[in-house]
Specification:
Blueprint lengths: L1 E6 L5 H13 L3 E6 L9 H8 L3 E2 L10 H8 L2 E7 L1 H8 L6 H8 L4 E5 L3 H4 L2 H12 L3 E2 L3 E4 L5 E5 L3 H12 L9 E6 L4 E2 L5 E2 L6 H12 L3 E6 L12 E3 L3 H11 L5 E4 L6 E3 L16 E3 L3 H5 L7 E7 L4 H11 L4 E5 L8 E8 L4 E8 H16 L3
Parallel strand pairs: 1-2, 1-4, 2-3, 4-5, 5-6, 9-12, 9-14, 12-13, 14-17, 17-18
Antiparallel strand pairs: 7-8, 10-11, 15-16, 18-19, 19-20
Helix pairs in contact: 1-2, 1-8, 3-5, 4-7, 8-9, 9-13
């Protein structure tokens, strides 16, 4: 993959350097164009060192080839990161007065803008009109995140997480279909059940599948909200995530937020059992026997008030998997269920099947969790379009 990165004048330009390093670490060939304003924040030497390639500054140089054309021929995608309001406005107006702007105008392949600016500037009606116009022309945007800005204020305008930008690039090049603002509520991780003040019963679910789903929704232009129990993976600061530790807490957060979504994807591993009693002091005994009882089936209870939404469940099985998944599909009133094995827990790759309520079963070979997430979203959109 060849990625051409354009950097504009922004305090977030140092994070553009992080993107260059991240791309190189993922075996991507990277070249960098710097605007004159960007030179106030990063140096050509730092870009050259991290990209291991020549850095481009000037439109008119006495070297072979017309730079904005040769770079366009070389790259698979052009990523303007960080993108300023200035470059967005110039592109929307068809202005090409430096190397980056002329490259954008002549680029015949995907172009991704990753804006970073103060919230007031990002929400300015003229900037939003320019973004809307460029989106209609086929340009791609990864909207800024909400967080601490250079001004010291909290708002929307923060440079997105670098791994999310990388996944957005992959999403564009893989031509995944847009989700067109659909709302996805995604649960992930594992629940815990107390049996004394310091000890719990739980499972090994990491939360990685749910995180891939959450990020895939954002990269494909949907709206996402996550509900996570305990996890073994870091969660991004700039995505909307709610937390719930026990199954009862998860149920309450689900009930509160289910009305918001078009689609519920229940990827959390809710504990099957809980202790019948929970003592108030730490247990000190030589031998311990716990009496367990079955936990409530959250998805089955929530699905009783489905009201036209698409519901997706997960079934992790090692024996009679297909039979058990079909039973869950029917008993929980689901539209889809994803069947995989215990080998999926904590791993990066899975072998999975998607079962649909119409009886269709899709079998996948070994795929990454990111690839599986996108296949699940494809099927969710197919169901939503039936409405």
């Amino acid at each position: 993959m060849n990625v051409l990165v354009g950097m504009c004048g922004s305090i977030a330009a140092y994070k553009g350097l992080e993107l260059v390093r991240f791309l190189k670490n993922n075996n991507v060939d990277v070249r960098v164009i710097l605007t004159k304003s960007a030179l106030n924040f990063v140096t050509p030497l730092s870009c050259q060192t991290l990209s291991d390639n020549e850095v481009y500054l000037d439109q008119f140089v006495l070297t072979k080839g017309i730079k904005h054309l040769t770079l366009s021929d070389w790259a698979d995608i052009l990523v303007i990161s960080p993108a300023s309001a200035n470059i967005v406005g110039k592109t929307a107006s068809g202005i090409g007065d430096d190397l980056l702007s002329t490259t954008i105008l002549s680029f015949q392949k995907p172009v991704l803008f990753v804006p970073a600016m103060d919230q007031g500037m990002w929400l300015n009606k003229i900037v939003q009109r320019n973004v809307a116009d460029l989106t209609n022309y086929g340009y791609h945007f990864l909207e800024p995140s909400v967080g601490l800005l250079a001004s010291g204020k909290i708002g929307k305008g923060r440079f997105p997480a670098v791994p999310l930008i990388y996944k957005k690039i992959l999403t564009i090049l893989e031509k995944n279909k847009p989700l067109r603002g659909r709302k996805f509520l995604i649960t992930g991780g594992r629940t815990e059940e107390n049996f004394d003040p310091v000890r719990v019963i739980t499972n090994r679910s990491s939360g990685s599948m749910a995180l891939e789903l959450l990020e895939a929704v954002i990269c494909r232009g949907g709206q996402a909200k996550g509900i996570f129990g305990e996890i073994s993976v870091p969660l991004p600061e700039d995505l909307e995530i709610l937390r719930a530790r026990t199954s009862q807490e998860m149920f309450q957060v689900l009930k509160k937020n289910i009305g918001w979504c078009d689609c519920l994807i229940m990827a959390a591993a809710i504990g099957d059992y809980r202790p019948k009693s929970n003592v108030s002091k730490k247990i000190h005994v030589e031998k311990l026997s716990l009496a367990l009882e079955k936990n409530r089936d959250l998805l089955k209870e929530i699905s009783q008030n489905k009201k036209g939404k698409v519901f997706v469940g997960f079934s992790l099985e090692d024996t009679n998997g297909l039979k058990r998944a079909k039973e869950k599909l029917l008993s929980k009133n689901l539209d889809l269920i994803v069947l995989n094995s215990a080998h999926a827990v904590g791993g990066k790759n899975v072998k999975a099947q998607i079962l649909k309520k119409n009886g269709k079963t899709m079998n996948f070979g070994k795929v990454s969790k990111r690839q599986l997430a996108n296949r699940v979203l494809d099927e969710c959109m197919a169901e939503l379009q039936k409405e």
